[in-house]
Hints:
The structure is a homodimer of 424-residue chains.
Chain A: H1 29-38, E1 45-49, E2 62-63, E3 73-74, E4 78-81, E5 91-98, E6 112-116, E7 128-131, E8 135-138, E9 141-144, E10 154-155, E11 166-168, H2 176-184, E12 189-193, E13 197-202, E14 207-208, E15 219-220, H3 223-233, E16 237-240, H4 248-256, E17 263-267, H5 278-284, E18 288-292, E19 296-297, E20 303-307, E21 310-315, H6 319-337, E22 349-353, E23 364-372, E24 381-384, H7 393-398, E25 401-405, E26 417-422
Parallel strand pairs in A: 5-6, 13-16, 13-17, 14-15, 17-21, 19-23, 22-24
Antiparallel strand pairs in A: 1-12, 2-11, 3-10, 4-6, 4-7, 5-9, 8-9, 18-20, 20-21, 22-26, 23-24, 23-25, 25-26
Helix pairs in contact in A: 1-6, 3-6, 4-5
Amino acid sequence: MRIQKKKVKLSCIKAAPRTPKGDHFMLDVATARARILANIPFCGQETTPLNMACGRILAQDLPARRANPPVAVSAMDGYAARVEDTHPGAVLHVVGEAPAGHPSGLEVGRGECLRIFTGSQVPAGADTIVIQENVTREGEYVTLSQAGKAGQFIRARGQDFNQGDVLLHAGRKLGPRDIGLAAAGGHVWLPTARRPRVGILATGDEITLPGDPIAESGVFNSAAFMVSALLEQAGADPVLLPVARDTTASLTRSLTQARQLDMLVTIGGASVGTYDLVRSTLDDVGLELDFWKIAMRPGKPLLSGRLGHTPVIGLPGNPVAALVCSIVFVAPAIHTMMGLSVPAQPATEPAILACAVRENDERQDFLRATLIEAPLGGLPEVTPFARQDSAQLNILAQSQALVVRPPNAPAQDAGTACRMIRLP
Amino acid sequence: MRIQKKKVKLSCIKAAPRTPKGDHFMLDVATARARILANIPFCGQETTPLNMACGRILAQDLPARRANPPVAVSAMDGYAARVEDTHPGAVLHVVGEAPAGHPSGLEVGRGECLRIFTGSQVPAGADTIVIQENVTREGEYVTLSQAGKAGQFIRARGQDFNQGDVLLHAGRKLGPRDIGLAAAGGHVWLPTARRPRVGILATGDEITLPGDPIAESGVFNSAAFMVSALLEQAGADPVLLPVARDTTASLTRSLTQARQLDMLVTIGGASVGTYDLVRSTLDDVGLELDFWKIAMRPGKPLLSGRLGHTPVIGLPGNPVAALVCSIVFVAPAIHTMMGLSVPAQPATEPAILACAVRENDERQDFLRATLIEAPLGGLPEVTPFARQDSAQLNILAQSQALVVRPPNAPAQDAGTACRMIRLP
């Protein structure tokens, strides 16, 4: 089965008139994710050499080009013989030998055997392998200590797979064992999903690249590097666009250059402040807005839309919010673009709260937390950090999980159940 | 702390005289792993740019080069004011504005405020932020609807981290969040462990590269590609050496070229058959053998030693055995070489057997199995495949776990507890 290029039905809601103060509607997280994923096209296929394909997504079913093993082979070092000749004390004539890769062409007759090794082709006439531990050899003769069984220590032709068997299915993320299976099936070049080129556009006059001269109150660009690393792990080929300044001219220049990318991710400037120009500039260059603002903490000012054929996701400028939104929305969008099947909702796991948490407001909360595994398969314990400020990179790096709290969840005591996303 | 180059104390046991048939001693898996890991040197350090460092192992502690935030900044869009001036109905004079990255240089006096935005430096004189949702602005004046609190919506200087704080410790595998933290701390170049160059030497006259012309009984080289992919995932830079033929001359040539590699992994030829020449050729070129043959299934003919300064691990030729031994021995050796802390024994997890298993012999067994997660944090269920032949790549690729059975384990019924290694 070939992955069909998904029909992109963009039922985009045109940007509402710019009335930020009155625009209090926030989309819920589940709907936001579903709408983003529904609008992501397949990124296309490329040919990848076997030894560079680990971690890539297979784009077509992969049939075996030959059987494995291609002929009946021995599973052990020993002697190929006829089962009716094998009994304790039997003496067989060794008519030759056949190392693996060097079939003898001989046929084993009555009272005869052939010296063979693991992987050697089983010669005609033979239907059992007597392992070398069970014979005593003298010159051209072996004396057997045990009877054999028909088929014993023989790997039948096609025991692993036959020609034409589908070894791996489209949409599979290839691991080392898949690479081995594809190799055994005779494949050199694998049809894989292309790595989507994703532009990452950080914005803001206060943002400086690490190592560049910085003002006393300037901050180093951390969100773009963090999002870039996450999306690279997710399978994308990130393009770090030059940081855009807080002017319409600078933003317009950056956005115009993004139209040939598979996806554009902006960071910052999507809030309601006078200097948050990303949203208005996106409108000016022709963004088809799907939604803006979601009921999520961190991550309220999330934007989704399309610029020409390029899906655009606008992330909040706070680095923690940018990262959490990348986990919940952008990485799944990359996966979808490569043909991986992605759950409609983020895969959460059950856990136990190790401390009490307060009641939640109308935004779905993603609390940074540490995690302790249960020793015997019980639920892991999670402890949300007391400080949940979305500028705290140190706490983010120390976190092992995000505790997901639904909108308006009541206060909970220590020891109660919760759901969490494990951080990789 | 700088990672110290580990003192390599090789208490190698010189190769025993070649008496394969009498040589029945098999080392247990735990001792074999401990001895391999004890003899692995640190591979050395290199300088990696920030945007290429995700997934690498940090080789030195990383101190912050400046505080984050570097000055007190606003966490919201609003007005910086003096807390004693803020009460419902208060009217404040807006003396100016300061977008993020553009400090005003103004001081906020009594009855005054400054328009600021998320990330803006908090001006001198101000000790609270009144968020814009809580004011009505008319011209140069704002009327407040609520009282403020001292420090409210202000991120103090160094709230995330201070200059000199250790952000990340040596030996840490860097993830996206760590990259963000390093960036925020002002780092462009990260001290990382070098990717060890690991030679992978497949041997055997029956082995053909996928795509090359192949004899009827020939098999495509799958193990080398599988091991290469696994070791690349583990952090190594694999070097696929040309397949060596079953002649002393071919093997000697390949082995001689391996001395400048960080590690050499051979595949096949380490058994006891007449054509299993790897072990004897390794002896000839000066291998210091540590051990050969372990009590493990699959994987009995495992070899460990050193060729000059290069650690050598000899894997069995059966692809499944080669992969399982790579998981249990080689990947942890790569990790150790890069300064990652590695558990003495493979990290197993508890699980429940979904079917009965027979009693085990003297070899530790690693059964290929499927795995079903428990819905509510209970133990996952594992089902070993009926066929455990070590040439079955198809079953290997379908497996999700290795059920680990200790030597001489008794028969077990369905529903009893076991230990397993999750396959990635």
